[in-house]
Design brief:
The complex is a heterodimer of chains A (about 450) and B (about 325). By secondary structure, chain A is α+β, with helices and mostly antiparallel strands. Chain A has helices at about 25-35, 40-60, 80-100, 105-110, 115-120, 125-160, 175-185, 190-205, 210-225, 235-240, 245, 255-285, 295-320, 330-350, 360-365, 420-425; strands spanning about 165, 170, 365-370, 380-390, 400-410, 415-420, 430, 435-440, 445. Chain A contains 16 helices and nine strands. A five-stranded antiparallel sheet of chain A has the order 3-4-5-6-9. A two-stranded antiparallel ribbon of chain A has the order 1-2. The longest helix of chain A is centred in the first third of the chain and has 34 residues, at about 125-160. With about 325 residues, chain B is an alpha/beta fold. Chain B contains ten helices and 14 strands. Chain B has helices at about 45-55, 95-105, 110-125, 140-155, 170-185, 195-205, 220-225, 240-250, 275-290, 300-315; strands spanning about 5-15, 20-30, 35-40, 60-65, 70, 80-85, 160, 190-195, 205-210, 215-220, 230-235, 255, 270-275, 295-300. In chain B, the strands form three sheets. A six-stranded mixed sheet of chain B has the order 6-7-8-3-9-10, sandwiched between helices. A four-stranded antiparallel sheet of chain B has the order 2-1-4-5, with helices on one face. A four-stranded antiparallel sheet of chain B has the order 12-13-11-14, with helices on one face. Classes of the chains: A alpha+beta (about 450), B alpha/beta (about 325). At the A-B interface, helix 1 and helix 5 of A face strand 2, helix 1, strand 6, helix 2 and strand 10 of B.
């Protein structure tokens, strides 16, 4: 059954071939959409102003957030603020930001019912995916840049550009600290990208479901919670969020780069695989049926199984290549780490007291640690590590000794709490010729390299 | 002069799993024609519109759009625009921003041209006054108009619209009809899906009626009326009692005593059922009997009657 063609006052020019819109223009279109909601604008504003205000406020408090890494040094240097912020963002901030941006970028079109409009306008699934992924990345980078810039600016204004005390107690010059702070933030971009890719995958695979939006937060928090568990080292390092912790190693001397590089590589692998899966799922989606938002058991299986494969492969590769087994925390490592940190901080205390400078070679600091008073295996995390630190004072025949109670967490971080003698680590403050100052030996942070030392 | 058809489809079949959404559909739409697409829910209208917009590909059959064979999704040539299942608009943007973003997406022209195009499209659909308001606050009617403006921005040679006058008030409908008529006069082919028979009758020169994925009618509206059997007509005369007698006496005319569409308390109105020739004869007899005919109109439009009859037949089959 056909209709008859009739004369009509139309021009009969040949139609242009179907050419998809270039990615650059689709990207610009996505950016317009990304920046148009108030939610995004507020988020950007919060990221560019909030950290500065937060760091300024915390820096003015008498009680510093000593449970957060570098939090106890916030009165000493402006470079501690952005690192304290980085610790907080790794747990909460960055998973939340990636959720709000990447987790919603595809689902928003489902919610607004604009997929068909977009497809007709752009004419390429591939280019739509590329544009959306790039736009999400742009917004996330803008937010992270805001967190870094604002955090640094606020902390430097509040406290100033002063030397930073590293995770093992050694002192970093302001320039060195600045470089490493920026490097640490750059390193956490890798796990942030992994979460963003998981957000894209959730947004494609779960459609309108709120779980699509929440997936990066759920994954991020799950990974962080997993880091609190006594997992074997290869499993711990194979989790995509490990780089949120491993940046600590940049602030040790020598730097603990292996865990950081492994963490970054694993995160990037997750980012690539999750993005590829999101891409494939997106290309497979049938947009002719409006009730189908792409969600389904098949989509979930296609999304989840390859990532489980990446996790398994990462664990195997790390286990074989590093030879790491168990918790990675043993007596020898704890003793060496504590002795190193104490040696560095003792020298800092000597400087505070205006005493003659000593070298670590002169101090010959050692530590003797026992877990559960030697009644259990001398390895693994726990708050039952008790250590005696011994050092030599130049020109004095006797050796100094100090007791520390260590709370070692499963990821290798510990807090050493001074337990006497009171002249060394008994008081929070020390009397210096310049007045009172926080006693660096009273309580300090340290870090155990979980990988075997070769 | 031989013109390239805006749409030339033959034997188009589209299945979703076991469901046959379109079953060997033929569709030809010349340039400048407003072609109506009508059918009950699930008849395949949206699927067909989706094929025209390039959102999907037919499993079987041949489809040419603006002279270009379409073989894969999103391969429809330039010059096709429109929307299905409502216009796609971004509520956080203003009407102008929505169109400007779309214009920049489609063209790399200078901003001046883009600005003019956007202003013109907004003006055509009567949204100039609210151009800088967020779409979030727009009513359904305004969204429909803006969706049409977005389609006009592409300067389409084939415009595909799904329920464009959905929710429009009489003035809005008149406005949209004017826009579409002007486009058609300029050579743009319009394929229009609607449940509103008055729209289709006012605009379309041809219609395709779909039922259960099949074409049950395709052709001019006049042909549809002729093909259909009896229609109910509302007849108001100067003498209802005498009119009733004349009608009862007329061959091929029956009086309908109960009709939902007519006010039962209106004693002056008579509902008769007949074909067009029989109605012509009835009117002649009324005139000869010196009875004034004050109103004569189908109770339901010929298109609606045909639609109901044909789709019911198809469903029964």
């Amino acid at each position: 059954m056909t209709a008859t063609l009739v004369e009509a006052p139309a021009t009969d020019a040949a139609p242009a071939a179907a050419t998809p819109v270039p990615v650059a223009r689709a990207y610009r279109f996505e950016l317009v959409k990304q920046f148009s909601p108030w939610r995004t604008r507020l988020l950007i504003l919060a990221c560019w102003i909030g950290p500065a205000l937060f760091v300024l406020a915390v820096s003015k408090q008498s009680n510093l957030p000593s449970d957060t890494l570098f939090g106890r040094w916030m009165h000493a240097t402006g470079w501690a603020g952005p690192l304290m912020l980085l610790g907080f963002c790794g747990t909460w901030g960055l998973p939340l930001l990636t959720s709000l941006v990447a987790g919603d970028v595809f689902a928003a079109e489902d919610r607004l019912g604009t997929w068909r409009h977009l497809l007709v306008a752009v004419r390429s699934h591939r280019r739509i995916f590329a544009a959306k992924a790039l736009a999400s990345l742009t917004v996330i980078l803008l937010l992270v840049a805001g967190l870094v810039a604002s955090g640094i600016a606020g902390a430097l204004i509040a406290v100033g550009n002063k030397p930073l005390i590293g995770i093992d107690g050694h002192t970093l010059a302001p320039g060195d600290a600045a470089g490493k702070v920026l490097l640490a933030w750059a390193c956490v971009l890798a796990p942030t990208l992994a979460l963003a890719a998981i957000g894209l995958l959730g947004s494609v695979a779960l459609g309108r479901s709120p779980m699509g939006l929440l997936l990066p937060v759920v994954v991020g928090l799950t990974m962080q919670s997993a880091q609190m568990l006594p997992l074997p080292v290869p499993v711990r390092l194979a989790l995509p969020g490990y780089a949120f912790i491993a940046w600590n190693g940049l602030f040790a001397e020598p730097q603990q780069l292996s865990p950081l590089l492994i963490g970054v590589a694993v995160s990037l692998a997750w980012a690539i695989v999750a993005t590829a899966l999101a891409y494939l799922l997106f290309l497979r989606r049938d947009f002719t049926n409006l009730t189908n938002d792409g969600a389904g058991r098949k989509a979930l299986t296609l999304g989840a199984l390859p990532l489980a494969g990446v996790l398994a492969a990462s664990i195997a590769i790390i286990a074989v290549s590093s030879g790491a087994t168990g918790s990675g925390i043993d007596q020898d490592k704890v003793q060496r780490s504590l002795a190193t940190a104490f040696g560095h901080l003792y020298r800092l205390q000597e400087q505070q007291l205006h005493r003659p400078a000593v070298t670590e070679a002169q101090l010959r600091t050692t530590a003797s640690c026992a877990k559960s008073e030697g009644l259990t295996a001398q390895e693994g995390p726990g708050n039952d590590w008790r250590c005696t630190v011994t050092w030599h004072i130049p020109g004095v025949a006797i050796t100094g000794q100090a007791i520390y109670q260590l709370d070692v967490t499963a990821n290798g971080r510990y807090i050493a709490d001074g337990d006497g003698p009171k002249e060394v680590n008994g008081y929070f403050l020390v009397q210096t010729p310049d007045g009172t100052a926080p006693n660096p030996l009273w309580q300090f942070d340290g870090n155990v390299d979980l990988l075997p030392s070769h | 002069m031989e013109l390239t058809a805006a749409v030339r489809g033959h034997g188009i079949t589209k299945c979703f799993g076991d469901v046959v959404a379109l079953d060997r559909i033929d569709l030809n739409v010349p340039p400048g024609q407003i072609h109506g697409l009508v059918g009950p829910n699930g008849a395949g209208k949206t699927t067909l519109l989706g094929l025209l917009l390039g959102l999907a590909v037919a499993d079987e059959g041949r489809l040419e759009i603006l002279g270009t064979p379409v073989g894969r999704a999103l391969a429809t040539p330039e010059g096709v625009a429109g929307f299905v299942d409502g216009p796609g608009l971004y509520p956080a943007l203003t009407a102008r921003q929505n169109l400007a973003a779309l214009a920049r997406l489609r063209r790399r022209d200078a901003r001046i041209a883009e600005h003019d195009d956007v202003a013109s499209a907004l003006d055509q659909v009567g949204l100039t006054d609210v151009a800088d308001d967020k779409v979030r606050g727009f009513s359904l009617v305004m969204r429909q108009r803006l969706g049409l403006a977005a389609a006009l921005l592409a300067k389409p040679r084939l415009l595909v619209l799904d329920e464009p006058s959905n929710g429009l008030d009489p003035a809005g409908k008149k406005h949209i009809r004017g826009v579409l008529s002007r486009l058609a006069a300029d050579g743009t082919a319009v394929v229009l899906s609607s449940h509103r028979m008055d729209d289709l009758e006012a605009l379309c020169s041809e219609v395709t009626i779909l039922a259960a994925g099949r074409v049950v009618f395709c052709g001019p509206l006049s042909k549809l009326s002729a093909e259909n059997r009896d229609l109910d007509y509302r007849l108001r005369t100067s003498d209802p009692r005498a009119s009733r007698a004349v009608a009862l006496d007329s061959p091929g005319v029956r009086i309908v005593e109960s009709c939902d569409a007519v006010n039962r308390h209106d004693a002056e109105v008579l509902v008769v059922r007949a074909q067009v020739p029989a109605m012509d004869e009835l009117v002649a007899r009324l005139v000869r009997a010196d009875i004034a005919v004050r109103e004569l109109a189908p109770v339901v439009s010929p298109l609606e009657a045909a639609f109901l009859a044909l789709t019911e037949q198809e469903e029964a089959a």
